[in-house]
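Field log, afternoon session.

UNIT: design team B
ACTIVITY: writing a sequence onto a fixed backbone
BACKBONE:
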């Protein structure tokens, strides 16, 4: 015979629904503790993924509105500041650089998004040699056939590290992919017609810099606490088409904005800065190389488009413009920010200055040799 006390104990031991309890999920943890943060569109990570394209679209739309307004009314607005010849020169150079570079930018973004979405990171781990010192040059040379802009190379290299690729090889790929892929080399050939030596010099210098930085990490950074192991930018379980769409939108909006800024800066530099000052800086090889290297860091132009900006800086030598094209894809303000967020501030604080110095010295050496 069951007593009321026994019945009460049995009922309390069975997890039945309580009609008086507030609606919502049970307090018990889910089988996968990471599920709330990793699901697409759920939790903080998903919320960030959903909000970013909308904010970027608004910024991109506003940028287009401003540019169209300047194109229509710029002459009247700036008539008191610049001569008509100056405005025409600025507009011609700005439009020329932007229109020439945009097809290569779009092609590079599409190929980069396809690489991120459809090529698994495990492919690289299997293809690279097991010995770290040998994996570095192979990873560097793989950038010749695997396109990707610098914005995409950071998450791709992070995925490589997460899949077991040695950090030195992932770093070498991070530097080479946006600098020597087919789209970049083709855009350089179009920007410098009849000068194949510029294309060769860019490929050789960028390849050498990526390998040297990879080997430098093996010597100085292996086993250190400088590198924070990165997390995947896309949520686990996200479909390949969604990864392709979001990567393409993200990279195009960011790279397109920097292209517009770079084209405007190059046009302004040629119109506003006195030609005597530019000639004075350009006459000193070392100073001109460092100045254009710093300009590449500040402008942060996408690698598919920077050759057209470099070609417009006709006051400077080919060696100085080579430095501009070598430095930009591997160290600039947006890359420093991306590397800080992905790999940690300790890594960025050491990696960015070392990359800049190696790129400047390599540009001087290759420029003296080939140009």
């Amino acid at each position: 015979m069951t007593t009321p006390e026994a019945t009460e104990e049995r009922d309390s031991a069975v997890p039945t629904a309580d009609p008086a309890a507030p609606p919502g999920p049970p307090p018990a943890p889910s089988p996968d503790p990471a599920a709330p943060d990793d699901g697409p569109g759920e939790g903080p990570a998903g919320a960030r993924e959903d909000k970013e394209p909308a904010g970027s679209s608004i910024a991109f739309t506003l940028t287009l509105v401003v540019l169209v307004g300047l194109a229509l009314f710029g002459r009247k607005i700036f008539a008191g500041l610049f001569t008509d010849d100056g405005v025409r020169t600025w507009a011609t150079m700005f439009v020329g650089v932007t229109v020439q570079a945009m097809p290569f930018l779009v092609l590079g973004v599409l190929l980069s998004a396809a690489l991120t979405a459809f090529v698994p990171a495990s492919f690289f781990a299997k293809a690279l040699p097991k010995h770290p010192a040998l994996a570095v040059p192979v990873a560097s040379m793989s950038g010749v056939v695997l396109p990707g802009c610098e914005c995409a190379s950071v998450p791709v290299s992070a995925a490589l590290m997460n899949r077991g690729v040695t950090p030195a090889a992932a770093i070498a790929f991070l530097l080479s992919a946006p600098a020597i892929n087919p789209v970049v080399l083709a855009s350089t050939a179009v920007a410098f017609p009849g000068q194949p030596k510029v294309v060769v010099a860019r490929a050789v210098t960028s390849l050498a810099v990526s390998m040297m930085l990879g080997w430098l990490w093996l010597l100085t950074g292996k086993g250190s606490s400088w590198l924070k192991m990165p997390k995947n930018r896309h949520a686990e379980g996200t479909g390949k088409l969604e990864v392709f769409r979001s990567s393409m939108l993200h990279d195009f909006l960011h790279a397109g904005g920097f292209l517009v800024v770079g084209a405007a800066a190059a046009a302004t530099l040629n119109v506003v800065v006195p030609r005597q000052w530019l000639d004075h800086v350009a006459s000193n090889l070392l100073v001109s190389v460092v100045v254009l290297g710093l300009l590449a860091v500040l402008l942060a132009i996408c690698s598919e488009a920077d050759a057209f900006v470099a070609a417009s800086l006709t006051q400077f030598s080919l060696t100085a413009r080579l430095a501009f094209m070598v430095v930009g894809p591997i160290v600039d303000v947006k890359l420093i920010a991306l590397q800080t967020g992905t790999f940690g501030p300790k890594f960025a604080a050491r990696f960015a200055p070392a990359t800049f110095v190696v790129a400047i010295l390599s540009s001087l050496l290759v420029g003296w040799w080939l140009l």
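LOG NOTE: Residues 82-370 form one domain.
NEXT ACTIVITY: expression trials, pending approval
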